[in-house]
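Why do we care about 3D structure at all? Because function follows from shape, and shape follows, mostly, from sequence. That is the central idea of this module. The next example makes it concrete: a single protein chain, its amino acid sequence, and then its structure expressed as tokens.
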Amino acid sequence: MTALGMEGKLEKLSAIYPTRNPVRWKMENEKVVITYKKEFRSFERFLYRKFGGVSHIRRPLDELGTRIWILCDGRKHLAEICAIMDEEFKERIEPVSKRVWTFIEILIRVGLMRLESAPRGNIPLRVGKKK
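And the structure:
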């Protein structure tokens, strides 16, 4: 990529502030575990009412996902998060911007994260009970 192309990409990434939605999460064995309510489709809701089952999803994150989750506090822009991840994980996260963005996209799709166009103020680090 040319220097001009990279400059434009960094400018775009600097205008995006990934922000965790208020969901329960905790640290277990140095990794984040997110717990959130399952969204049932009509047939799933019928089966749940008839037979029972779990109403919440427990999503443990790996080491990279844990670090990204913690960094996405609404105060750091995407370029900054990518730079931190690149510094900490080196070749384990290459290509860094693609890997970080893919992970954030997944969290947005399931409603655990959103994108802001400006940095947020005081955001709680955790929502829910501490263990």
